[in-house]
Design brief:
The strands form 4 sheets. This protein has a 5-stranded antiparallel sheet. The chain has a 4-stranded parallel sheet with strand order 6-2-1-10, with helices on one face. By secondary structure, it is α+β, with helices and mostly antiparallel strands. It contains 11 helices and 15 strands. Helices cover 32% and strands 23% of the residues. It has 3 domains: 181 residues, FAD/NAD(P)-binding domain (3-Layer(bba) Sandwich); 69 residues, no CATH class; 39 residues, no CATH class. The chain binds flavin-adenine dinucleotide. The site of flavin-adenine dinucleotide has 24 residues, from α1, α2 and β7.
Amino acid sequence: MKKQQIVIIGGGAAGFFTAVNAARINLQAEIILLEKSNKLLSKVRVSGGGRCNVTHACFDNAELVKNYPRGGKELRQAFSRFSVNDTIRWFEERGVELHTENDGRMFPVTNNSQTIIDCLLHEAEQYKVRIRTGCEVTGIEKVNNKFNLLVSLSGDEGGEHTLTADNILVACGGHPKSAAYDFIRKTGHTIVEPVPSLFTFNMPGNKITQLMGLSSEPVLVRIPGTKEGQEGALLITHWGMSGPAVLKTSAWAARTLYDTGYKFDARLSWLPKMKEEELRDFLSGLREQEGPKQVASFSPFHLPRRLWEFLLQKSGIERTILTR
Ligand SMILES: Cc1cc2nc3c(=O)[nH]c(=O)nc-3n(C[C@H](O)[C@H](O)[C@H](O)COP(=O)(O)OP(=O)(O)OC[C@H]3O[C@@H](n4cnc5c(N)ncnc54)[C@H](O)[C@@H]3O)c2cc1C
């Protein structure tokens, strides 16, 4: 009897993880992984600054999904079947130990993404996953419960070929152009238009860029018209603003920001842990405690001094004004 053929489209983290598990669970099947480029797991290599942030030490799925800007419902289902604990165990069983950083991020103890790549490649070899690089799937057609895949090969046997599969899994990752998903769209699936995410703010001509190199933490970034703000470290760059608070904001507000044509206001709270009332009381208290001092001569909130001076200037407060 001919072996069941399962074809995985895409040689990234998702494709590999599926391929090796499908091969392990279904020893009778032939697993074929197709990758259009000549590189495997290339994003895993650069992930987490080359260290690969494998998972996060959050063991409550309801809490975990709150960290994803979209798809929480679907992810909750997925995590209920394969949790953070399962991920840790999966790698541990294959000799890859993870360690947890103070903020909950989990990396291989080697702090090297190559450890994760080696683990996945080793599994694929052990379970005889057939890997084909330089092989792009350009069309999928369903015929009598089977799939005919139109593939375009590069290299010596270049050109168009057809491959038949009993089951397929599409793990082709993200792409900035919607047209990249046409081969899936043609099968009847609905594709959500891709928009940029995890980007920094480009603010040409904005005076804040005078503070380039300065960072402050925590800062709350809000986009008027969107629900929540994002808090974290903020870095001023020579083009605008960056850092986790900005990157997270761009991810959570990705669709709103796209709709504005990337012309939008951002509201920053440099002291997000203090309510306005508290802040006013603090300043009044400060006036009592401190002798008369020039306001620009010290920063009362542990804000970087340059930022404090900038904020005074923006608020129209003279540097030389006395606290009382
Ligand atoms: C700089 C950076 C750092 C990151 N750091 C982290 C991190 O620390 N932790 C974390 O969890 N995530 C991180 N990410 C995100 C993470 O890398 C991705 O979410 C993850 O790699 C996506 O895996 P994937 O398999 O879905 O897609 P991809 O890795 O994009 O793989 C998809 C593959 O499919 C191939 N393909 C596409 N279309 C076809 C086709 N038609 N036929 C054949 N092949 C096709 C592509 O060439 C590609 O190799 C980071 C991303 C970047 C860019």
